[in-house]
Amino acid sequence: MRESENKEAELTKIKKAVQSGFPITITTYTLPHETEIYMGQVLSMFLKEINQEYMTEYLTYCLGELVNNAKKANTKRVYFKEKHLDLNDKNQYRQGMMNFKEDTLNNIHYYLKLQEEEGLYVRLILQKRKNKIRIEVRNNVELSFFEYARIHDKMSRAQQYTSADQALKQLIDDSEGAGLGLVIMILMLRKIGLTEENYQVLCENGETITRMILPISKETQKNISMLSSEFVSFIDNLPQFPENISAVNKVLENPMSKMSDIAEKISNDASLTADLLKLVNSASFGRSIRCHSVGDAVKLAGIKGIKNMLFSIGTIKNLASKDETAQKKALWTHAYKTAFYSYNLAWNFFGKKKEYSDFVEDSYICGLLHDMGKIGFETVHPETLDKIKELCTQKGLEAGVFEKLIAGVDHCEIGASIAEKWNFPDTITEVIRYHHDPECAPQKIRPLVGIIYLADMIIHYQNYEITFDQLDTDILKYFGLLDENKFVKLSDMLAEAFARRQ
Questions:
Q1: I want to staple 373 with a disulfide (CB 3.0 to 4.6 A). Which of 240, 246, 306, 414 is the partner?
Q2: Which span out of 214-228, 263-277, 442-456 was modeled with the highest average pLDDT?
Q3: What is the separation, in whole angstroms, between the first and last Cα of the chain?
Q4: Do residues 479 and 349 make contact, with C-beta atoms less than 8 angstroms apart?
Q5: Measured distance CA(238)–CA(314) in Å, rounded
Q6: Spatial distance between the Cα atoms of 141 and 120, rounded to a whole number of angstroms
Q7: In this predicted model, what pLDDT tens digit does every residue of 229-270 receive, in sequence order?
Q8: What is the rounded CA–CA span in Å between residue 98 and residue 95?
């Protein structure tokens, strides 16, 4: 019973990770057999969740090879250290490897204990990003020159072989198996239509990273894309952008308009005036000057600032409802908090940089609307979902594809599609589209996407939904937060500031 409950808990965790674009991480210091089995089970559940079960057999073998290689590399470090040998010296490396296998196998528990004391880990990372799967095995020692050369030599030689039998006949080595496992792994990848280009070995920030980037099958991509498009076309009950806001936007976009014209147009709508003043004076913006009139608000926020606020107001009106579900309330709470964090992060990181002033202005609305796709799912009528489900039946698609769509697997693309329907500016649309994939965002807005990603992840971290090692290291590096203590300090500051504003 307990095993069944644990498996269900793991599946829930994996579903959450796939839906939100979080990486799944497992870290071990000794890699006992049960942990290796557990890693294989998680990989299997992960591939099933993204409809890529056909890869399971091949990738399970590859995973076993990679984690054991990482473990062996860690063992090698403590072994060489104990023998006072230099891994980077050619003669000493050869001398150490003569007895390495026999010595460590005969006393493996001792050497694993040394690894744990040294803090040498093996870490598995699984992640679905857009139309690709990322599988990484990391260990916190860098390859020596001889190890690196050996790996790349075997990868090159693997291209000569057409089968495991052929490789076995030609590769015999008493010290390290001459990379037979690596060669077989390359052959396994070839079986599912992949090449050596899908496999990378690199050293970065004191780690050796073995990475496989695998494409999601074209059939799965086609099905999800088709259902997403159908969802957007079916949302007839999702209204066009409010007419009064669209009218004000026309004035804002007219280069001949004066600030007084904009203020007058807004002031003519009592409801819009109230909403705008409420938003511009809200705690989320943290402005020290309080606005008492639309004229003051327009002067203080500027044309772009007012336009962003109007987009915020219009979206809230369109996607809000009187009888909101608990799930939808939770999504809006997360949206407001992300907006507050985004604005404060943008101000702190970019506030003094004139070239990034647009990012500061756009940060609040981008944070507020980043999960618009998820909120859209909660807004549509059940009839719409019934239509999509019926379409799945007509096309012969598995029920799981529909369930994954409704769970929000493609919410970034759907949110961007809704933004396009409402003629949002490209910046807002693209941030919604890429907020889980900053590295894929257009170069010119990548820092802003990074801010929204960071704000979003800090909240998930505060809610104990992710751990520090699940965060994008490139984003952490960009904002100088690779040290977990710095990250936690920033997280605490934002949480305290948000609490004071409530």
A1: 414
A2: 442-456
A3: 44
A4: yes
A5: 12
A6: 7
A7: 777 666 555 556 667 777 777 777 777 877 777 777 777 777
A8: 6
Among 446, 190, 419, which Cα is nearest to 318's?
419
User: What are the strands, taking DSSP E only, across 255-342?
Assistant: none
501 token code pair: 């504003």
pLDDT band at 289 (very low <50, low <70, confident <90, very high): low
What's the whole-model pTM score?
A: 0.74
**How far is residue 439's CA from residue 449's CA, in Å, rounded to a whole number?**
9
Do 392 and 404 touch, CB atoms closer than 8 A? no
* Nearest-angstrom CA–CA distance, 150 and 143: 10
Distance CA 246, CA 462 (A): 37
Contact 332, 375 (CB under 8 A): yes
Cα 49 from Cα 190, distance rounded (Å): 23
- In this structure, the dihedral spanned by the alpha carbons of residues 361, 363, 364 and 365, taken in order and rounded to 10 degrees, is 90
What pLDDT shows up at residue 4? Answer: 46
Single-letter code of the amino acid located at 411: H
Amino acid 282: pLDDT = 65
Euclidean distance between CA atoms 130 and 225, whole angstroms: 11
Return d(Cα 16, Cα 159) in angstroms, integer. Answer: 38
